[in-house]
Each structure stands twice: as structure tokens, then as C-alpha cells.
Amino acid sequence: MESQNAHPAAGYSSLKMQDAPASAVDGHSVTKRLQSELMQLMMSNVPGISAFPVSDSNLCQWTGTIAGPEGTPYEGLTYKISMTFPANYPYRAPVIRFVSPMWHPNVDMSGNICLDILKEKWSAIYNVQTILLSLQSLLGEPNNASPLNAQAADQWDNNKAEYKKSLMAHYKDIEELADE
Amino acid sequence: MMSGQDSEVNQDDTSAGTINPSDYVTEELDDVTILRLTQEIKDHEASKTPLVGELKPISVLLDEYADSTFRAKIKALGGGSTGYRPIRGDGNCAWRAFAFRFFEFAQSYAPDQIAELKSRIMSLTKLLNEAGYNENGYIDFVEETESLFDRLPGLTTETLVSEFNNMEVSSAVIVHFRLLAAAYVKTHAEDYMPFIDDGEGTTIEEYCNRQIEAFAVEADHLALSALVNAVGVADLGVVYMDRSEGEDAVVHTFEPMSASAKERMKIDLLYRPGHYDIFYR
């Protein structure tokens, strides 16, 4: 349970993150919103997902973890993501990417994610928790119609054993990531 | 776990470790850069048109069109109109136009009428709950609308325009109104399902998610109808300025199915393909 919100600093203190954007405009409201989201996340403590700001001084840059859903090739694995919130969040979606190397039809080799709710279907009623849960279900239910990783999509459809092998070849334990 | 199959696909197997870059998007923009560029595009757009512009005479539109069908319709409109107010085309224009005009009417009301209207709109929060929205998800937007109602008696049309050009105020009210419309659709599924049914199994939930809740997706006919029904105190006339035949623009009127107010606001929008502004009769 090292990746739950109750222990925000554990394992991540040595991470190097990008400086987040200076959000002078509308800064107050986005800060207030993110603080309340953080509070809700900590209160609800949903198993399998966690997220928190990288530092106290910048609420617009978060890091999070997603545990692979049971019954999927990702079961038992934990992935790390970065979340960058724009100054006009929640009216614009945050930019989210996998920091852990990810083998998945809808994630490219840089960790960019193709998920409709983070693009054209973004709604201001989504929040960090709904995003994390959507990403978690995306792991077990890829959209193979428009893959970013065509090879992964092909393996998912035709050869699950190969898929699992590729996935494990790319996987890095979250503790290893923190040491890099 | 090696199997016989592995030797057959050995080449593919080794390539799984060394990814061929051409298969993937490799243009690396870091997240901060992406957000900065997005913001710059937005600022550029903002510099061209305010979210809610000043009231202009209809004849200003004549300068924009060479097409004779359009010009004839604009001229015909000019007769019965005091003007139009341009709204920024950012995918929220119909919502912003409706919300602004709604508050512009309300601003002209006496304080007790404003209070009555406020309590009517605030009472719709129960509709959001009925539709299954989580209070955490909507409360910020509802509170912004409530606070705008509270400031309203002290505002003039001019200062209301400034309020709506504040992205935060404007956006929050739009989200609130979008949620009211979506909640109305969800709680009146039997009325709306026949129009949503596209033969591909689209559900009410998916429709609302894609067409109403999604921020910056333009309102369609159904969304406008749901908004008018949810709000219940305004008729909406949409003046269609398109290339259809005839010298007069077609007007489509939406009236609430169960109107709670006897005297309803008359909100008019001017529709040109892909965009809504506010129309003043």
C-alpha cells in the first residue's frame, strides 16, 4: 500500500520533474480547485490509484500511480503518471502522460495517452479521481480502432501471450524509476 | 514462458525491445510547452473577439457578406431588430450567448424578481442530483452562478458584459447550464431517446457526455431544447441565417414544455452556420 494518498512523499522525493508553468492568470481559482480535489482524494482513498502534487510550492504539477486492474495483463503492476494542470483547469483538460514505460495500444513510447475524455470529450465535471479511474479501465479495455502503438494493438487482438511479454519487457518497477 | 510459437515470431519478438520510432509519435513536446502553445493560440483568438462583445447594429453584418441570399436576409432582419451582440466562437457560443442574455434580462428585473429567479435556478440543483451528478462535481459551478445572482442588482449591462468576459465567471455559468440541460435529458429519457437513437446504440449517457457535458462542444438542437426546458423561464428563438431559399431568415422557437413562469424572457440567438451570436429584436 506504499502508493496510497495517505503517504504522499514516500518514494517520490528524489524525482526530477519539469518546472510547471507559471500560472499567473486565474491562479487563485485553479489552486483552490486542486486543493479541494487533493482533499477529496485523500478522504476517499480509492484502492489502486493515488495522486498528489509534486511539491507544496506548485499545485499545478502532480504525480500519480495506477495499479493494473485485476484480470488484465497489467494485474500486479503499478504505473506512474505525471499530470500537468493548465491555469484554466477544469475548463481545459490536464496534460497527462505515463512516466513509467508503458506497452499499451493507446499510449506511445513517450507516454502520451490517446483518451477521448482528455481531448474532445473533456468536461469540467471530471477530476483527478475520474481521470485516474478512466486510465485504469483503459488498461484493460484498449481502443484498438485508432492505436498509437500499432504493434501492441495487434498483439492484444491476436496474441495475448506476446502482449504480456512485450509489456513485461518494457515494465519498470516504480522504485527503479525513482532511483533514476 | 517460451513456447514453440516464439521461434516463429522471433524477429517481431526482438523488435519489441527496440521500438521502431517511425511507428510512433516521436515529436517530443513537453507538457509545459504544450500548455504554453495552447494558451498562445487561445490568447490569439481572444485578441480578435471578446467572449461577449458590444451590441452592434445588424447592418454591421452586411460588411461581412457578399452573398446575395445572406444580404437579403440581413436586410430583412434589420427591419425588426435593434442589433446583435457577437459572441466568441470557441465551441461554447450558444451556451454563452444564452447565459449572457438570460442574465441581461434578469439584471433589468426588480430585486424581488431577481431573488425569485435565483431561487428557481438554485432549486434546479435537485435535478442535478436526480440525474446522478455528484455534488463535488458541480458545486463550484453552481456557487459561481449563485454569486453572480447576488451581484446582479448592483450591475449594469456594461458591468455584466465585463463579468461575462471574465473567463472564470463565464465558464462556470456555462458548465452549470450545460449540466442542467444534460440533467434534464437524463431525467426525461423517454422524451429524448427517440432523437438520440442513431441506430448505433448511443445511450443517453453517451449523448450527454459527448454533446452536452463536454466543454467547448457546440450546442445542437436537442441540447438547446433541453436547456430551455430545464431553465423553464425563457423562450428561445433561433434566427437561422443560412443559404436556404427565401428573403426572410427562418426562426425556430423553443418553448419550455412545462413553464413555471407566466411572463417568460424572450431570448433570441442569431445562427450562422457553425456559430451563434445574440440577436436583439
Can you count the beta strands of chain A? 4
CATH architecture of chain B: Up-down Bundle
- Tell me which protein chains meet in the greatest interface and how many residues each side has: A-B, 38 and 42 residues
Q: What sequence of helices (H) and strands (E) makes up the elements of chain A?
A: HEEEEHHHH
Percent in helix of chain A = 25-40%
Q: How far apart are the termini of chain B?
A: 76 Å
Instruction: Name the CATH superfamily classification of chain B.
Output: Peptidase C65 Otubain, subdomain 2
* Rg of chain B computed from alpha carbons, rounded to a whole number of angstroms: 24 Å
InterPro entries (chain B): OTU_dom (IPR003323), Papain-like_cys_pep_sf (IPR038765), Peptidase_C65_otubain (IPR019400), Peptidase_C65_otubain_sub1 (IPR042468), Peptidase_C65_otubain_sub2 (IPR042467)
EC number (chain B): 3.4.19.12
Keywords (chain B): Hydrolase, Protease, Thiol protease, Ubl conjugation pathway
Domain OTU (chain B): 82-281
